[in-house]
Amino acid sequence: MVNLTYNKNRPLPSAEELPSSDETPVDNQLQNDLPNLLLNLLALIWSGRDDWYFGVDMAVYYNPDESAFVPDGFLAVGVNHDTGERGRLSYILWGEKYILPILFLEVISEKYNSEYEEKFLNYQSLGILYYVIYNPFSGRRGRFKKRQRLEVYKLISGKYQLLESENNRVWLPEIGLALGYEKGEHIAWYREWLYWYDQSGNRYLTAEERAMNAEAIAAQERLAKQEAEAIAAQERLAKQEAEAIAAQERLAKQEAEAIAAQESLAKQEAEQKAIRLAERLRLLGINHDEM
Asked: Using CA atoms, how far apart are residues 2 and 5, in angstroms rounded to an integer?
């Protein structure tokens, strides 16, 4: 069981003096890939913050006289993200102002490591607020196939209580994020992954997805620009055609007016000729009607 009692006034070991892991190799690729995906997402979501740390397969020391816990992943809030060029070798509680991680994550692997039993009780005794168990074998095989795919426990009155999920997501108010799962592609691997979500249930995208979306948006903007330019060109052409038609109509009107003017002039000339002829005949004493 967890022993939180020790003499805090004596010299306490540093990270360099303690093992940084339990030296137990993972037996499932997901034990590394799932926590690292959550870490990478947090680096995007909280890019402007320096008060959090997400460890992957790192030792968490709560007592200098006890062995460390090494969850597959853990989140601590209220600690410096940047601890210098070397970074953390392990998470030592007395070196982190006694700030406990707020969340522990365990991924059920090929070899069962008492995630539902011993670790459950240890993390509960340690006081980890959220304990998350992801079981990729749920509904398929193994002794825990009837367990839920994702179980999120919250420490309430010193005991872990299983939280209800909605659409495969669980809201964690103290963190300000929801944790859930769905299928997607990550590191060229299409399968079910753990993701962070906002309170409305919108999934936070990975860097690759953001880049793809940005490229898709850029492509749409280029297409929209091309379509706008094509429409503008069509409008210019239509305007030119309308101006050409108007010019033709003006020319036709001018030609019609010229023809009408010529006909009017010809009529006037004919009338004048008739008048002159009638005057000559009158002078000659010839009646025009007699001709």
From this structure: 9
- Cα 156 to Cα 164: distance, rounded to the nearest angstrom: 14
Report the candidate in 136, 84, 73, 78 with the shortest Cα–Cα distance to residue 110.
Answer: 136
pLDDT tens digit at each of 291 positions of the chain:
788 888 888 888 888 888 776 566 556 788 889 999 999 999 999 999 999 999 999 999 999 999 999 999 999 999 998 888 889 999 999 999 999 999 999 999 878 889 999 999 999 999 999 999 999 888 776 677 788 999 999 999 999 999 999 999 999 999 999 999 999 988 888 889 999 999 999 999 998 888 887 777 878 888 888 888 888 888 998 898 888 898 898 988 998 888 888 888 888 888 888 888 888 888 888 765 655
Hey, which residues does 48 pair with through a beta bridge?
none
Strands 103-107 and 130-134: parallel
Residues 6+ positions from 76 with CB-CB distance below 8 Å: 52, 53, 54, 55, 91, 96, 99, 100, 101, 102
Among residues 171, 207, 209, the alpha carbon closest in space to that of 44 is found at 207
- The HSE-up count of residue 126 (CA atoms within 13 Å, CB side) is 27
Whether the model clears a pTM of 0.85, i.e. scores above it, the answer is no
Q: For the sheet with 150-156, list strands across it.
A: 52-56, 73-77, 103-107, 130-134, 150-156, 159-162
